[in-house]
Amino acid sequence: MSAASAERTCPCGGRPEGATLAACCGPYLAGEAWPPEPEAVMRSRYTAYATGDADHVFRTWHPATRPSEVDLDPAIRWTGLDVLSASGDDTEGTVEFAAHWLSGDGAARQRGGDA
Ligand SMILES: [Zn+2]
């Protein structure tokens, strides 16, 4: 990760809003820290998709449901993340979110919950 990219606003929008990648999801993607609560896990997963970090997507995926290998689609451009609600203060919590992206098929949006 270059210094320049670490100083831009985190792809997840930043927490608090506008926080840089280095101050937000960067340490989680680098494996220097583990996201402390479900919202941070979900934000770091979004950021991993947005920055093409398949390793982080894989290691934050629940072992019961993750595929043997994670393939990210380079044609998808991740355009934003909205955290709608979050509860829980450890790994057992729920996050409601809407992720936005652009692909060859146009704009798309996924709304979901992450346990
Ligand atoms: Zn972030």
Describe the protein's architecture and organization.
The protein has a single domain (3-114), classed as Nuclear Transport Factor 2, Chain: A, CATH 3.10.450.50. The protein has helices at residues 3-6, 26-29, 38-51, 54-59, and strands at 77-87, 94-103, 106-114. The chain starts with a helix and ends with a strand. The model has no long low-confidence stretch (mean pLDDT 88). The protein is globular. The protein has a 3-stranded antiparallel β-sheet with strand order 1-2-3, covered by helices on one side. With 115 residues, the protein is of the alpha+beta class. The chain binds zinc ion. Zinc ion binds next to helix 3.
Spell out the key features of this protein.
single chain, 115 residues, alpha+beta, Nuclear Transport Factor 2, Chain: A, 3-stranded antiparallel β-sheet, binds zinc ion
Please name the CATH architecture. Answer: Roll
Radius of gyration: 13 Å
Task: Give the integer mean of the pLDDT values.
Answer: 88
What proportion of the residues form beta strands (DSSP E)?
A: 25-35%
Total strands: the figure is 3
Strand order of the largest sheet: 1-2-3
How does the SSE layout of this entry go?
Layout: H1 3-6, H2 26-29, H3 38-51, H4 54-59, E1 77-87, E2 94-103, E3 106-114
Antiparallel strand pairs: 1-2, 2-3
The structure holds zinc ion (ZN).
